[in-house]
Amino acid sequence: MAKFIRIDMTSKEVRVDDCPEKYAGLAGRALTSNFVAEEVKPTCHPLGKNNKLIFAPGFLTGTGAANSGRISCGAKSPLTGGIKESNSGGTFSQKMARMGIKALVFEGLPSGDQYFVVKVAMDGVTIDDAPLEIVGMGNYDAIKALQDKYGAKVGVAVIGPAGEMRLTAANISFADPDGNIRSAGRGGLGAVMGSKKIKAVVIDDTDAPGVAISHPEAFKSAAKRFAKALTTHPVTGKGLGRYGTNVLVNILNEAGGLPTQNFRRGRNEWANDIGGETMTATMETRGGKPTHGCHPGCIMRCSQHYVDKGGKYITSGFEYETI
Ligand code: SF4
Fold first, then answer.
1. CB of 294 closer than 6 A to ligand 1?
2. Cβ–Cβ contacts within 10 Å for residue 261, how many?
3. pLDDT value at position 160?
4. With a 6 A CB cut-off, is 298 part of the ligand 1 pocket?
5. In sequence order, which residues have a C-beta less than 8 Å from that of residue 236 and are 6 or more positions away?
6. Among 188, 190, 162, which Cα is nearest to 77's?
7. Among 294, 319, 320, 321, which residue has the most ligand 1 atoms within 8 Å of its CB, making it the best to mutate?
8. Whose C-alpha in 111, 157, 301, 322 is 20 to 30 A from the C-alpha of 87?
9. Atom 6 in ligand 1: which residue has the minimum CA distance?
10. What percent of the chain has pLDDT over 70?
């Protein structure tokens, strides 16, 4: 039975239960959103003790199924006041799934100013005082410092100064396989993590049993068919991998649906300057990577390595909606 782990940041108690029956048929965003609807009072303050922050992998996470490794995060949003699901790539989710963890839930609120690092391993959960030097640190540096301390291969979920200051648009960021960051950027869930004084969650899947497959041959065949469907479709097999989600800029501009001037117009004359085709050409000229996966096992690879004029990595690329 998959484990449902609750970490109470008020009392520092950790409870490891079997997954409750009511959540057994759910995973990923269905689980995190239903959990928030069920267990978080709609009237609670999002940065108060009654909000809960939940991380959950998907049903297929940790298996060989393509594109199954993203993580879902949920809580009452400090930005919208509603139920928020925000998800991210990185290595965290696959480690959770391989360890047999259905959900990690952070409850309560500690008193005082101390920040904590929660460590999740096969032999249990520990709550350490966060090293002084990482408090206030940005995400890239904090991930490096945490992997130096806890091991180069651990998964990391972390907040930067925005989360510590509980700014309502703060991200939760996750280490990716290259030591860069992937972010659950919607709804200010980094502020919820900051309110619980969790600077980072470190996950170590050493000795994890992996995900059991009941019918390996049937699973392999279905996974193969799914992968083929993705790689042969013009959008998932060609467009997204070549131009990222930014492939949409020119398409929507043509269709008159590119939000411009707060959607007073659906087209703008400089769409091509910021579209996927231009972005990809710029990356190729500078020596960046127009095609990259945000987690191991992604075959669509809509992410990128966007570099500066000297070829130095700046960011993972720009999503359509950010553009
Ligand atoms: S790189 Fe793109 S396609 Fe691949 S898992 Fe991440 S978001 Fe999905």
1. yes
2. 8
3. 98
4. yes
5. 230, 300
6. 188
7. 294
8. 111
9. 294
10. 100
**Tokens for 165?**
């200051």
The position carrying tokens 């648009």 is 169
Per-residue pLDDT reduced to its tens digit, 146-182: 999 999 999 999 999 999 999 999 999 999 988 889 9
Domain ranges of the chain: 3-204, 216-315
Residue 243: per-residue pLDDT:
94
Q: Give me 174's structure tokens.
A: 């996750």
Q: Report the alpha-carbon distance of residue 74 to residue 26 in Å, rounded.
A: 14
- Residues 208-224 pLDDT 10s: 999 999 999 999 999 99
Cα distances (angstroms) measured from residue 55 to each of 94, 121, 174, 310, 314: 12, 15, 12, 38, 27
300 CB within 6 A, ligand 1: yes
In CATH terms, the fold of domain 3-204 is: Aldehyde Ferredoxin Oxidoreductase;  A, domain 1 (3.60.9)
Q: Does residue 89 line the site of ligand 1, with CB under 6 A?
A: yes
Beta bridge partners of 184: 172
Whether the CB of 67 sits within 6 Å of ligand 1: yes
Which of ligand 1's atoms lies nearest the C-alpha of 69?
Answer: 5
1 band by pLDDT with thresholds 50, 70 and 90: confident
Ligand 1 close to Cβ of residue 289 (< 6 A): no
Residues 220 and 296: their CA atoms lie apart, in Å, by 17
